[in-house]
Amino acid sequence: MSLQNDFESATRRVQTLGSAPDNATLLALYALFKQATAGDVSGKQPSRLKLRERAKYDAWAEKQGMSHDEAKEAYIALVNTLLNA
Questions:
Q1: How many Å separate Cα 81 from the centre of its chain?
Q2: The dihedral of CA 36, 38, 41, 45: what is its sign?
Q3: Closest CA to 31 of 70, 2, 3, 85
Q4: How far apart are the first and last CA of the chain?
Q5: CA dihedral 17, 9, 60, 53 (to 10 degrees)
Q6: What residue numbers bound the domain in which 27 lies?
Q7: How many CA within 13 A on the CB side of residue 19?
Q8: Do residues 62 and 73 make contact, with C-beta atoms less than 8 angstroms apart?
Q9: Which of 35, 46, 47, 81 has a beta carbon 3.0–4.6 Å from 53's, enabling a disulfide?
Q10: What is the pLDDT tens value at each position of the chain, 85 positions in all?
């Protein structure tokens, strides 16, 4: 299987989790997915008053410089860890 197929499979399998992961894990999944699909974060950092948007932006910004393939591999590994826990 190709990395892209494995990534797409992981995006489907993560939706089968029995319970929602904690917020830190959700942010990690979001950031890795965005880095894998869109690349480095763009746009202006949201206001501190917009807590959710700011947290998502900051999590994605931490992945800046990571290649699409590295982000896909990290996303797949995290999903596998969650599903095997």
A1: 14
A2: negative
A3: 70
A4: 24
A5: -50
A6: 3-84
A7: 4
A8: no
A9: 46
A10: 699 999 999 999 999 998 999 999 999 999 999 999 999 999 999 999 999 999 999 999 999 999 999 999 999 999 999 999 8
The residue type of 11 is: T
Tally of domains within the chain = 1
d(CA 21, CA 47): 25
Whether pTM > 0.85 for this model: the answer is: yes
* Long-range contacts, stretch 20-27, CB < 8 angstroms, 24+ apart: 21/82, 23/55, 25/78, 25/82, 27/55, 27/56, 27/59
In the numeric block, which tokens belong to residue 80? 């596998």
Residues sharing a CB contact under 8 Å with residue 14, sequence separation 6 or more, in sequence order? 29, 79, 82, 83
